[in-house]
Amino acid sequence: MSNVKEIFNILLLSISLSTVLITLVSFIIFKFRYNYNKKDKQGLYQLKGSFFKRFAPHLEIENAKVVEERKLLARKSMSPQKKLIITFASFTFFIFAFLSAENYLTFRKQIAKNNKDANRIKQLVRQGLLQKRDFNPLKTQATFEEFFTVRQKTQYKNLLNAANKLNVVLIIDRRNSEKNQPNYNIAFERWKQFLNRNEIPYRISGISGIREGDFIILPQLRYLSSEQIAKLKESVGKSKMLFTGLPGKSNSMNSIVQELTKIKFIENKKTDLFLPTQLIGTMGMPAGLTLPWYPLDQVQIPAGSKELQSFSRVSGHNGEPIEDYVVRDFYSRESGVTWTMLDPLEKASFHADYFLLALITRGSDSSFIEIANWKRDENKAVFSMTVDSEDKFERIDKFLELFKKEKLKASFFLVSDLMNEFKDIELKENGLFEFATHTNDHKSMLSKTLKQQFFDLEESRFDIEERVGSRVHGIRPPKEEVNEEALSAIVQNGFEYVFGPNKKLSFSPEIVAEGDIVFLPRTLSDDFEFYKNKFIIKQNLMLRAMERELDWIKSSNGAHFLSLHTQIAGEDLPFKTIEMFVKDLKRDGLWITTVDKVSTWWREKESLEINSNGKSVEIRNHGKDTVKDFDIRIYNPMNLDSSCFKRGVSSYSEHLVLRVAEIKPGDSVSLCVGD
User: Fold this and answer.
1) Planar angle of CA 8, 10, 13, nearest 5 degrees
2) What CATH number is given to the structural domain containing 595?
3) Do residues 589 and 631 share a domain?
4) In whole angstroms, what is the distance from residue 491 CA to residue 612 CA?
5) Range(s) of the domain holding residue 311
6) pLDDT given at position 36
7) Dihedral sign, Cα of residue 473, residue 478, residue 482, residue 488
8) Nearest-angstrom CA–CA distance, 240 and 337
């Protein structure tokens, strides 16, 4: 047993000694290798094989530290050029990445905006906006000649029909012809020419040959015998008379006209001042039209002219008010006497002949039917405030705010290039304002070719319609300069009206360009005139001038378009004057509206034809649009055969007003049928 234990102990001892020996041998071998090949050229321990890595892990850690220190040292010892390149490359990469991300986001945002804009443009096109029109380079001109309309022609015809029913007598005076020279012979011949060219039946007779029921024309008979005067007085109430000049004045203290009408005449202290004749807007005559029509005799004038109902008056040479209000015709219903200073013009003139036919119709108490000048009978005149938004465009805000506060309708003429610079200004159709073009660059249209004018106007029209969201109906040419070529560019762009200079001295629109354009004249002074006359810096003078001109135009039943400019009226002092004028504006009897509404109504009105057979009144619409909600006025309805015209009318001095609800294109309506 003891032997076994000894053997086992010896075995264990042998194993232990073997282990120690192996360890010792390994250590010796490692030390030998370590001592003779300690590090490589890079300063690292040679730890090849898993044995050394296993038994010398601390050396591997040392090697890793050496490598890291070398890298750090390499970075520290990097050249400035290399650093700059690496920095620039890094920065460039960062910027590129940022811009790429931004461009992507912007691209997506732009796509969304383009989609939104495309849908908006699509909607505008569906509304009839942004309409592309063809340019015709061969259509180089459009005419400014007045286009006589359906209404004008039929009204003229109606006046002629009334005159043809009369027993017209043109008085000849062979007995006193020498005393009545030279005016009598001139006037007599002109009346013959007038009656002949209008094919009005008449007879020539002396005063002694007057019969009951005649309509007598006595031209420039300044001398009358006592027998002739007695005959005329005897004819009062039996015949209607039309006197020109001052019959009987040279052989009597008072003219026979003064004796018959009880209207006083006073001496005209300005006989050497030949002033033109301005028409009053009634019986279908153009309000404020100023004609170079001068009396043969103006020695005396009627006193109290403002109280007399008249178709004509004296005007300044620019259509402006004059100090002494002087009428050139009147009618006394009690005596049946019409008096006028005016004899027919030597050459035919539509408006002058129309005026004389209206005198005859009124003076004979004939019935006459007209369309209310400004749509409703209660509208005696039109007032439109207009603003040219050019220099100092941003001041448009002041006018928008003022007019909106005062609920005053107004038209704004925009220079579209300037408009595009002020995106924050709200320009929207709101029932009060109209926005039209003042061209794209405010350069004179006359400085451009026809092609340039066309496409510049198209660009401006598109810009404004897209911004405002409503149609651009009209244009105000810069500097009020427009000729036949510019008018052609305007017509080809499909504009409906031109708001321009008042070359024809009128307070009424006019149809031109063979019916394509309504021409609306700027009436009387604008803020440039006030500035030139230094009224702009004197508040009371400017305010008084604006009120006086409005009253003058109202008295002619005309249209007043007051033109302002952002760079002038937008200054503090004149703007305060505008504020006072707007706040104190007397609106009774005024149709206050925008220029496009006036243009539309005028075009509609001029397309209407009125005919009467005594039993009924027929109104036919020859235009392209439905005409709604307007009045017609019937003078002397008591002379019509239909009893329904006479209901509610008690005397010849009254006129009858009828409201028409609607007439569609090509249709007609008949009033007072079957009573």
Assistant:
1) 110
2) 3.20.20.370
3) no
4) 36
5) 166-365
6) 41
7) negative
8) 6
